[in-house]
Amino acid sequence: MQHRRLGRSPIYVSDICMGTMTFGGQADEATSFRILDRSFEAGINFFDTAENYPVPPREEWAGRTEEIVGRWLKTRNRDAVILATKVCGPSHGWIKGSQRAGMTALDRHNITRALEASLKRLGTDYVDLYQTHWPDPDIAYDETLETLEDLKREGKIRVIGCSNESAWGLMKSLAAAERLGVGRYETIQNNFSLNNRRFEDELAQVCRREGVSLIPYSPLAGGVLSGKYNDGARPEGARFTNYLGLGGRQAAMAQRFVNEKSLASTAAFAAIAADAGVAPVALATAWSKQHDFVASTIVGATREDQLDDIFAAADLTLSSDVMKAIDAVTKDILYPMG
Known about the structure:
With 338 residues, the chain is α/β, with parallel strands linked by helices. The protein has a domain of 187 residues: NADP-dependent oxidoreductase domain (TIM Barrel). Helix content is 40%, strand content 12%. It is built from 12 helices and 10 strands. The strands form 2 sheets. The protein has an 8-stranded parallel beta sheet. β8, α6 and β9 form a beta-alpha-beta unit. α4 packs across α5 and α9 packs across α10. The radius of gyration is 19 Å and the shape is globular. The model has no long low-confidence stretch (mean pLDDT 96).
């Protein structure tokens, strides 16, 4: 397992991060513990959660994932674990926070309450990386960043990051941090995969120029790149099988990830993986890690048997021929997720 720096911070993390958004939902606590144990034993030291997990968010589930992670954390040396969590953005937009009766925002009140509650659930007095889960266009970056700086000075946060942010928003936040003389976002956690390369359009250049690290989520495009939805399959218990049945926002999300173009590109990438002698999951994970602006790729699992193909990417470097073949598919099937 290789290690890379988070932005310009002093924190180095394994280049694979274990995400936890299914813990307490699709994965019960015993399964979650086995996934966490095997990840740690494989050399992963970086674990990502959020106050809004598990997903899809439900008020009665709020904080369950952090509680599971917290109980597991007690079995490990805290200094050996790099722990990341997130505060919900505003609940009046596309995503509704499951915390604070759905009245979430990125103001001082919400951030302070969110962190205190997360620390209690996680059973720790600090988090290594604290992230805004999605932007809040109605709150000035000044208030958000100054609040996070105060919590950092209290020793409750080591470094901060953002998630689901735009190029404009990231640059605006960096300018505000410099003007205010406070800590800046060292990381950005956005969707990035073989099926969704939009990050390369603008944000990759911001990260390179400003020294901000991407920690991409959904490198398997929500599991689509594993091939489990190919040929019209709807596996029982799979996320997008469930989401299609829920309707509303979840169904719209499922249709973005599982559609004619995304399944066509997935099949093409599977053929490239077969020619290279690797599993499609390993190919997709290795490809994500193989970018200069990426610090650590966030993977996830609902079953222990899904881990082998993920771990196979730990020391896998794709050849230039494989990378060219991948780029050819991207050029032929442009923006399969829209």
